[in-house]
């Protein structure tokens, strides 16, 4: 079993903020997928020009689909490279529409017992609304990527715990996670 703490969830859920607090409290390094992903993606041939072209011709959803195999690889690489730390995934790194990619990520995460999904509320629509208020660009996005992240089964299937953050400070959320940690 692996003791790393992994935070997953949609954009604006508080993964990086809570990750920093956990890192400080536990005196463990914080590893942010968003800071490492470009390096990992390039290891397997990520093409910036193709990504730009997909974004221009297909919108964000086309770019998002292009990212998926790179995201699965990045999860594998990050978990092979970092131990004894607090990890916060990018929002897309725990959501996979392709069954084979999901199974690949599910298998790599299976030994990890401290996977926390951060969501504002158990009410899906309320979570979407709260996060849309936090992240202005999401309100205009069609389709709304956070709505997809919240409604898709992947996060729920990968999480070992779900933490609802509505009406809690990041410090209170951190304390809740600390009480749930399985050492």
Describe the structure.
With 183 residues, the protein is an alpha/beta fold. It has a single domain (2-180), classed as P-loop containing nucleotide triphosphate hydrolases (Rossmann fold). 59% of the residues lie in helices and 14% in strands. The protein contains nine helices and five strands. It has helices at residues 15-26, 33-43, 48-81, 99-109, 124-134, 136-140, 145-151, 153-158, 170-180, and strands at 2-8, 30-32, 86-88, 112-119, 161-164. The longest helix is centred in the middle third of the chain and has 34 residues, at 48-81.
Query: Which CATH C-level class is it?
Result: Alpha Beta
Number of beta-strand segments: 5
Structural class determined from secondary elements: alpha/beta
Question: Overall pLDDT, averaged?
Answer: 93
The amount of beta strand, in percent, is: 5-15%
Strand neighbour order, sheet with most strands: 2-3-1-4-5
Q: CATH architecture, please?
A: 3-Layer(aba) Sandwich
Distance between the termini: 10 Å
Shape: globular
Rg estimate, integer Å: 16 Å
Secondary structure tally, helices: 9
> How would a crystallographer describe the biggest sheet?
5 strands, parallel
Please write the string of helix (H) and strand (E) elements: EHEHHEHEHHHHEH
CATH topology call: Rossmann fold
